[in-house]
Amino acid sequence: MSYKIAFFGAKPYDIASFDQVNEKYNYDIKYYKGHLNPNNVVLTQDADAVCIFVNDTADAAVIDAMADNGVKLLALRCAGFNNVDLAAAKGKLPVVRVPAYSPYAVAEYSLALMLSLNRKIHRAYWRTRDGNFSLNGLMGFDMHGKTVGIIGTGKIAKILIRILKGLGMHILAYDLYPDHKFAEEEGITYVTLDELYRGSDIISLHCPLTDQTRYLINEDSIDKMKDGVMIINTGRGQLIHTNALIEGLKEKKISAAGLDVYEEEGDYFYEDKSDKIIDDDVLARLLSFNNVIVTSHQAFFTKEAMHNIAETTLQNIEDFRQNRPLVNEVIL
C-alpha cells in the first residue's frame, strides 16, 4: 500500500520539485493549497505523514487532531519550527525538518540586496521604464575598501564573507561562538557588537532567532552605528525592531535597508495580496521608503535549494518509514 502524505500550503513550484524527486519514492502525495490550521486538519485523515511550511499552524489542537487522525510523522520542509508546538508533539508524533537548503542561495541574495540598494538599481529600473534617464539621486559608493559587519558566522555567513572579500571589503564579525580557525584562514576580525556597530558601513544579519537575539537591532544599537549605515536582513524578521528601524530611516541614521524577512510576515509573505489594501501599518510604512527593499522571504529560492528541500523532506519521511535514525528530528 502506498505511503500517504498530506501536503499543505502547496505552490506550483513546490509541486514541481516534489513530484520530480518523488519519482524515486512513489509516495501518494495529496497537495492542498490552504495552510494547515484547525479548520482543515480534517484533511489529514488517512495520511501517514503531513508536510508543512513556515506559515502553517501546528499548535497543540492541530497536533492532537492529527494524532487522532492517525498521522505518524510531521515533516517540515523548512529549517524553522517556531510554528510547531513541540511540547504537544512530544510522544505523539516525531517532527523532522530541513536544516539547510542552499547556503549559497542566501549568501548571494544578501550581496544582491547590498548592490541593489547601494547603486539604486531598483529605482533606476522604474525610472527608465517611465522614460526618465536622469542620474540625479542614483549615486552609490565603491564597495571596495568599505567595512561590512557580519552578525552570526554560520555556513551562509562564511560564504558571504568570502564573496565580500573578493570585492576587497573589510570584514568585522560577531558570533557568540567565534570560529577562530576560520577567522585566521580568511583574515577577518571578531569584535564585540559595539565595535561592529561603530565600525561597519554595512551590517548583515545571519544569526538564529533566540531570546538573546530577538530585537538585536533596536533603538540603542542603531544609536551606536555609523551615520548612513546600510542594514541587510536575510535571517529572521524579529532580529530587527521594525519601529526602531523606521525611526532610524526617518532620521537618516540608516541610509538603506534590505529586508527579505519581516517580524509580522506570516499574513503576507508567499501570498498574492495585490488586490487588497495592506492593513499592516508598519509594513506599509516600510514599503513607502524608496531606500528600502522588502522581498518576500525569497533568499533561499533557487532551483538547487528547492531540489534540496524536496530531497531532504522525502528522505526524512523514508527514514521514518524504514525505522532508521531520524537525523533531522527536532527534539524539545
Task: List its salient traits.
alpha/beta, 7-stranded parallel sheet, 5-stranded parallel sheet, D-lactate dehydrogenase, 332 residues, D-isomer_2_OHA_DH_cat_dom, 35% helix, EC 1.1.1.28, D-isomer_DH_NAD-bd, D-lactate dehydrogenase (NAD+) activity
Can you characterise this structure?
This protein is of the alpha/beta class and 332 residues long. It is 35% helix and 14% strand. It has 12 helices and 12 strands. The chain has helices spanning 12-22, 60-68, 86-89, 103-118, 121-129, 155-166, 180-186, 193-199, 219-224, 242-250, 281-287, 303-321; strands at 4-7, 28-31, 49-52, 73-76, 95-96, 147-151, 170-174, 189-190, 202-205, 229-233, 254-259, 292-294. The chain has a 7-stranded parallel beta sheet, sandwiched between helices. A 5-stranded parallel beta sheet has the order 2-1-3-4-5, covered by helices on one side. The two termini are 32 Å apart.
